[in-house]
Write a structure and sequence with these properties.
This protein has about 270 residues and is mostly helical. It has helices at about 1-20, 25-40, 50-75, 90-105, 110-130, 145-165, 170-180, 185-205, 225-240, 250-270; strands spanning about 220, 225. α1 packs antiparallel against α2, α1 packs across α8 (about 185-205) and α1 (about 1-20) crosses α9.
Length: about 270
């Protein structure tokens, strides 16, 4: 029972971080599920070498719901720039397929430490390179991304995001921030761009043979079905609770809080 309560609370947190920071939930869910599947919290699950695989797969499935609901919220508020979504989303979907296939053959340790390294590099980049903590530009039309850059960036974002189960926000938010978007719009744009990652990745993970990464009787492929349901219920509550705060966080504080959340997740994953 304690485990389900923890999952619900973290589901709420993932909903809040999705709608306000564009995370999709992965940075909250992956470390949590990894811990639960590695240390028995009364759920009848013992330590498993497949813990990271199931955590990533389940996180990716939860992101389908989180990203869709958050996208609908931001669309109603006019925070999305349709012209900026395509063809980047298509290239992200291609990368998502590559990332999911790579994850199926990677070891648990490789996935865990890749997650840690990815977070560490992202944090340092946001701290040391100009344009994130303060906007690189203010007002005016956004500079267009060259077609080749869009293709390469999209495939890289999709591959890394699906491999780690974190969505693409930690690449798309800083990228759009440095192009001149305020944090409200940059995080809003991350939600629809996470959808192709979540849909492609979750589909592949659910088609995998469950016995290859079995840690729960509720598994569908690599996705823990029971954890998915509990997390989604919490996430929907979190999205609803956080929606009134969209666009009301001062830009500078929004950027700093985004970065602080990444640091907290990094520490939690290492510990």
């Amino acid at each position: 029972m304690l485990t389900y309560l923890i999952l619900t609370v973290f589901g709420v947190l993932s909903g809040v971080t999705t709608v306000l920071f564009g995370f999709g939930g992965g940075f909250v869910i992956v470390p949590l599920l990894f811990s639960i599947l590695t240390v028995d919290l009364g759920r009848g699950t013992s330590a498993s070498p497949a813990a990271m695989h199931v955590a990533v797969a389940t996180s990716t499935a939860v992101m389908v719901v989180n990203s869709f609901m958050a996208t609908m919220r931001h669309a109603r508020l006019g925070n999305l720039v349709a012209a900026e979504l395509w063809p980047l989303a298509g290239y992200i979907a291609i990368g998502a397929g590559i990332g999911a296939m790579l994850a199926t053959s990677a070891s648990d340790d490789v996935m865990r430490w890749a997650f840690v390294a990815y977070l560490g590099v992202t944090i340092l980049d946001c701290l040391l390179r100009r344009g994130f903590l303060s906007r690189a530009a203010d007002g005016g039309p956004l500079p267009r991304m060259p077609a080749q850059f869009t293709a390469v960036a999209g495939i890289i974002i999709g591959t890394i995001a699906t491999f780690l189960g974190v969505g693409g926000s930690v690449m798309t938010v800083p990228m759009n921030r440095r192009r001149g978007m305020d944090m409200t719009r940059a995080t809003a744009m991350a939600t629809p761009l996470t959808l192709p990652v979540a849909l492609v990745g979750a589909g592949i993970y659910m088609l995998l043979p469950a016995d290859a990464v079995a840690v729960s009787q509720w598994q569908v492929g690599s996705v823990d079905g029971l954890a998915f349901v509990v997390l989604v219920i919490g996430s929907l509550l979190g999205i609803r609770a956080a929606a009134p705060f969209i666009g009301r966080i001062p830009d500078g504080w929004h950027a700093r809080t985004y970065l602080l959340l990444l640091v907290v997740v990094l520490i939690g994953m290492i510990v």
